[in-house]
Amino acid sequence: MRNARRLRAGLRGWGGVGAMATMCVLALIFALVLTRTGSPAAKAPKAAGHTVTDAVGTKADEECTDPEKQTLPPSDADGATIDAIKNRPGEKRKLIVGIDQNSYRWGYRNPDGGDGAQLEGFDIDLVHRIAEDILGDRDAVQFKAIPTDQRISAIKDGRVDMVVRTMTINCARLQDVAFSAPYFRTGQQVLAPKASPITGYDKTLADREICTAAGSTAYAKLEEDKAAGELPRSADIRTTVPNQLDCLVRLQLGEVDAVVTDGALAASQAAQDPTVELKGDAFTVEYYGVAMKKDADDLLRRVNQVLVDFREDTEDGWRKAYETWLSATLGSDPAKSEPPAPQYLRTS
Fold first, then answer.
1. What is the pLDDT along the chain (348 residues), one digit of tens a residue?
2. Is the dihedral of CA 62, 63, 68, 74 positive or negative?
3. Are 203 and 338 in contact, with CB atoms under 8 Å apart?
4. Which of 174, 181, 233 is nearest to 48 (CA)?
5. How are strands ordered across the β-sheet holding 236-241?
6. CA 255 to chain centre
7. Strand 236-241 relative to strand 178-179: parallel, antiparallel, unpaired?
8. Measured between alpha carbons, how far is 267 from 263 in angstroms, rounded to an integer?
9. Theoretical Cys-Cys bridge with 107: which of 74, 99, 162, 199, CB 3.0 to 4.6 Å?
10. What's the rounded Cα separation, in Å, for the pair 238 and 212?
11. 8 Å CB contact between 163 and 98
12. Rounded distance, CA 113 to CA 274, Å?
């Protein structure tokens, strides 16, 4: 029987963001954006599919209607992938995880977090939980900041063992990576200045310039709806950026009229800037999952077991993490964001 492990995350809130500090941080981010990005009208890359033979891949290659259910049952057993992680020598014996360092309350560097502005947030707590389960040490993690548009390539190239970065499970991505069971429920929403006449994902987006992150489900949805005539054809969706926070910077500078992103992220961005707000309700239902290589079955099963334990832990589990990091931006009722009971593929 595996010993029960509990996360001691040292959960802390940020306690609000001062306007002056926020603008300084955003100014720095914008400077970085200008030096590392090219044309703002870069199109989001399309996922490239490939043939697979494992259970998850075989199912995903068929007609995909419920991507959040295309995962393997949980297990405590080690396998080749986990053994390779455990056998890394010396100081390299760490779980290598792709994360975000700019998403407030999800994965961000808290400027009040001590030396080095340590990484904190809901996703970061989950990473510590996984590391503690696999390696017996919640701090045995090597974090790698991965832009939104590089999440899949980082996994396929072996730069990370997994990505825990507000990553939506969908059918296209299942062609390239495997996903855990869902750990969070959200949906796409519109973010715009409070004074804007935009009212939501509707006709008020006509003749407006909309920013999304390259490779995001938001861009894919806008592209699909525009082609189908469900989004005004005059809406300009060409502006894409490497990281979602870059859209907030462009919105603040008046370079775009609106941002479309996951409501969970948009709420955090609105908390950073009191001049913007969510417009209208969510117009999709999406689930975040932990992504990893398609052939890492043992790691996938192990992460799914961690997620079961995380949700059942009434002291330091999912609901405690929600209360600490997200209740201030998403509301006091976690039931709206907690995913349904997981469903798994039958492998026998």
1. 344 333 333 333 333 444 333 443 444 344 343 333 333 334 333 333 333 334 444 444 457 889 999 999 999 999 999 999 999 999 999 999 999 999 999 999 987 766 656 899 999 999 999 999 999 999 999 999 999 999 999 999 999 999 999 999 999 999 999 999 999 999 999 999 999 999 999 999 999 999 999 999 999 999 999 999 999 999 999 999 999 889 999 999 999 999 999 999 999 999 989 999 999 999 999 999 999 999 999 999 999 999 999 999 999 999 999 999 999 999 999 999 999 999 999 876
2. negative
3. no
4. 174
5. 236-241, 209-213, 258-262, 188-193, 276-279
6. 25
7. unpaired
8. 6
9. 99
10. 9
11. yes
12. 23
Buried/exposed code over 126-157 (b: 16+ C-beta within 10 A; e: otherwise): bbbbbbbbbbeebebbebbebbbbbbbebbee
Q: Which amino acid is at 204?
A: T
Look up residue 148 and give its two tokens. 């939104």
d(CA 273, CA 214): 22
Q: Is 153 helix (H, G, I), strand (E, B) or coil?
A: helix
E-strand stretches of the chain: 95-99, 102-103, 107-109, 119-120, 141-145, 162-163, 178-179, 184-186, 188-193, 209-213, 236-241, 258-262, 276-279, 286-288, 291-292
Residue for token digits 């775009």? 256
Q: What predicted TM-score, i.e. pTM, was given to this entire model?
A: 0.82
